[in-house]
Every structure is written in C-alpha cells, then in structure tokens.
Amino acid sequence: MPNKISKVFYGTLIHSLSLANLEILQNTLLGVDISGKIAFLEKNVLDEITLIHIISQWEFPEQEVIRLSKRQFLMPGFIDTHTHASQYPNAGTGMDLPLLDWLNKYTFPLEQSYSSLSFAEKVYPIVVNNLLRSGTTTAVYFTTIHLESSKYLARLVKEKGQRGFIGKVNMDCNSPENYIESLDNSVKSTEEFIKYVLNLEKDEGRENGSRLVYPIITPRFAITCTSQLMDSLGLLAKKYNMPIQSHLSENIGEINFISELFPHLPDYTTVYDHHGLLNEKTIMAHGIHLSSKELKLIKERNIGISHCPTSNFAICSGVCNVRQLLDEGIKVGLGTDLSGGYSKSILNAIRNANIASRVVFMASSKVDDKPLNKSFPHLTLPELTYLATMGGAELVNLDKIIGNFLIGKEFDALLIDPDACQSPLDIFDDLEDIERIFEKFIFLGDERNLKSVYVKGKKVSGTDLESMNLREKELLKNLSKLYGGNCHLCNPNS
Ligand code: GUN
Ligand code: FE
C-alpha cells in the first residue's frame, strides 16, 4: 500500500538529469507523500480530465492541487556545500586581507565569541532563517571549536527543518591563545558532538537513512591541526562512518606554510591523505591551486571539491578552474564560504562561478595569443544549475535522496515566482520561453521570488510563509488590543 499523498503540484518543473541535461517539464503533475518523498511524476498532463483521473487514483482532492501560474516553476532546493555559520556577523566586511591575515585579524576573534552560548543564540537563528529564505535547503556548516554552541546549531537546524551537516571545528596548533583546544579535548568533544547529533532525531524515529541533521568531522585545515589530531579525527571518521570537511589549496601563502609544516610530504592533498582524511565522504573547500598529481589523488579517493567563487574573489585567493575538475571526473558542488564570501546566497555563488569560469576561459585564450581556447569553455546554465543542486547532493552523498525530482527522492524544492511582488526581474509579455525565464531568475532573481521553500515535503520558508507569519502577528496584535493585552496567545504567561 503506497503512502498517502500530502501535496500535489501542477505546472512547470525544472531540474538536472546530468551536467549537460537540464530537463524542463511543463504541464506536469508531481505528488509528494506524507513521508516527504516524491510518489509520482506525470508528464504532459494536458487536460483536466487526465489530471482528475490521475489524482483520483491517489485519492487526492482536486481542490487541494497547488496549481502554478504560467511563469512559476519548481526547482530543486540549493545545496551550500561549505559555509561558516559562525562567521555570518562579518559577512560583507573585512575583504582587505589575504587568507592567513584575514583569519587572524577578523575571523578568529569573532569565532572566539561563541564560547558564550548566548552569543550563539543571538546569531545562529538569523543564519539558518536567512539561508532557508535564500533557498538553501541543505547546508554544510562549520561552527567553531565550542561544543555547546555547536550542539545548539544542530538543534536549531533540526527545529527549523533544514537539512544540515554540522561540523564542530578542530584546531590544536598555530591558533590564537584564546581560541585553541588541547589535542585531548578536541578529540573528546568531537566524539561527544558526533554522538549528540546522531541522537538528535531519535524521537522522530529518524536515526538511520532518513535523518535531516548529520555531524561532520571538521579539522579546520592542516595548518591549525597537529598530525596527532588529524590521525585521531581520521580514526573517528572510520569508527562512526562520518563525512569529513576541511579547506584545501585555497591560497599561496597557506600552501607555502603547509610545505614548511609537513616537509616530508610532497603536497597539501597528500597531507590529508596521510592522516586518513580523504575518502568518498570528504568535502574539501576551494581546491584552487592543485597540481596534476593532486588532482589524480583527489579523483582516486573520490573526494568532492566545494567551489566557493565569491570567497575566492573577495579575499583574492585565486580563480578555480572548475572545467578542469569536471573534465578529470572530480565531484564539484558550490559553497558560499561565509564570510570569506560575503553572500549567503547560492544564487550569488552560481553567478560568481559563471564569472570565474569565464575568467579562466578568457585567460587561457590569452596565453596562447590565439582565438579563444576551446579546451576550457566556460560553464553553461545547465552545468551551473547542476553544481548548485545535484553536484552538491553528490558531495554530501545524498544524490540518491535529493538533488532533482526523480520518483522516490525526498522533495527538497523551491517554488519560484518570477512575477512576485517587487521581483527584481522584469519579464516582458512576449517572453514566453520558460528556459529564458529560468535563466533570468538564476542571474537576476533573489529571495523575493522564492514563494515557498520545501524540505522533505514540508514548507519551511518562503515569502508566502512569511506573509502568513506577518498576518498572524498582525492578528495577534489586534487580539491583544481586543483583550486589553491579556490574550494568552500574545502573552503565553497570562
Ligand atoms: N581556511 C581555514 N579556515 C578558513 C576559514 O574560516 N575561511 C576560509 N575561507 N578559509 C579557511
Ligand atoms: Fe571556509
């Protein structure tokens, strides 16, 4: 007996079937069951009789079908494969220094503040709300070294219904005096954190396959972790079959420091490999300045690269050649890298990934002083869409669960309204081509176009939810006036 259907959409769907294949389905019916999975997808439903016939087979009432308008469409939720929740307060500032100086001057002092749980309680709800509002249905977070505020972020992500990977940061050397852990503490608190997060969804019976929130082992980078710490984290990853995240080959000064710290190892990628930190569940952010030997090792270990173009431009780390990574068969997703990157939005990451790929394309043509070098063509719209959705799903090893709208996957989706109130994109009446409307949204749209944001079939954000909340607040205010301020809804203590 199939699960009961909780939602049915009728209209246009846009999703990636492969890097090159962006599928656009019009007049399509999509049904989501009560467990949040896509139960059916019927294409070319061209008349009411067929529509009613299909939904009646699923015993779904016709009046509850969510009918998209002509220019609205559904697309998969965005996956941010690398972001620092803790650095959100610095976003948009401090872009005058390269990585290592930037860390010391701006980033470590801010991260230190999360030793106080109440600081985390002020910042983290804003971060999760804003990421959801921007369409990030799955986020891979770095927190700080602090156990309690890291646990708090994990609880919060669960409460707000986002899919998330939460990494308590490890750092036991080359760090400021007031922002460092001992080796022992670092390992112990990481194990406690893993157990805590693995237990979070026990009450909902979501311990295994279907959980929303996962722990991820997070050595900050090889500069701030001793060999012993990295060895221990590699062992923990094996013991609990955990994903791992870190930074790799972001900045030339960083790479030089790595070769001073690990003179016996040939390159940066091998440093992580030597400590058991590279496997198919590893996500490395940046990967800009990799040698061909390192690319080969990355491919062999099947690790994923989180491409963070906004950050790479903002703190002048370099321009990553994503085309080359893809040609080598390496998995690539997109990351905002707050606050090295100033924007919380994956739409912004897509746009900067587009620009970065064009910079590589044009620069490679200049070297030869010939017409544009066709060996590094810039990324296309289907490829950019893939990186933001399916590519991210591959990095977090959820490509069988999310990333597009295949039947059986969980429904993480965005309902986009190009004609929303105060929409930043203008569509002229004669622009009927849905692919061009989609392209306009990708390059000009923002959260005002995100009518609804769904994770696992549940609406968790979006403009209609916010306006409902606002309406509710307005109603409560009026109630409060009516009851002379003693309404128990407005004042839970009354
Ligand atoms: N490398 C080590 N830590 C960081 C960080 O917080 N941000 C970025 N962009 N790179 C890093
Ligand atoms: Fe980062």
Automatic annotation (TrEMBL):
<protein>
    <recommendedName>
        <fullName>Guanine deaminase</fullName>
        <ecNumber>3.5.4.3</ecNumber>
    </recommendedName>
</protein>
<dbReference type="InterPro" id="IPR011059">
    <property type="entry name" value="Metal-dep_hydrolase_composite"/>
</dbReference>
<dbReference type="GO" id="GO:0008892">
    <property type="term" value="F:guanine deaminase activity"/>
</dbReference>
<comment type="similarity">
    <text>Belongs to the metallo-dependent hydrolases superfamily. ATZ/TRZ family.</text>
</comment>
<keyword id="KW-0378">Hydrolase</keyword>
<comment type="pathway">
    <text>Purine metabolism; guanine degradation; xanthine from guanine: step 1/1.</text>
</comment>
<keyword id="KW-0862">Zinc</keyword>
<dbReference type="InterPro" id="IPR032466">
    <property type="entry name" value="Metal_Hydrolase"/>
</dbReference>
<feature type="domain" description="Amidohydrolase-related">
    <location>
        <begin position="73"/>
        <end position="460"/>
    </location>
</feature>
<dbReference type="GO" id="GO:0006147">
    <property type="term" value="P:guanine catabolic process"/>
</dbReference>
<dbReference type="GO" id="GO:0005829">
    <property type="term" value="C:cytosol"/>
</dbReference>
<dbReference type="Pfam" id="PF01979">
    <property type="entry name" value="Amidohydro_1"/>
</dbReference>
<dbReference type="InterPro" id="IPR006680">
    <property type="entry name" value="Amidohydro-rel"/>
</dbReference>
<dbReference type="InterPro" id="IPR014311">
    <property type="entry name" value="Guanine_deaminase"/>
</dbReference>
<keyword id="KW-0479">Metal-binding</keyword>
<dbReference type="GO" id="GO:0008270">
    <property type="term" value="F:zinc ion binding"/>
</dbReference>
<comment type="function">
    <text>Catalyzes the hydrolytic deamination of guanine, producing xanthine and ammonia.</text>
</comment>
<dbReference type="InterPro" id="IPR051607">
    <property type="entry name" value="Metallo-dep_hydrolases"/>
</dbReference>
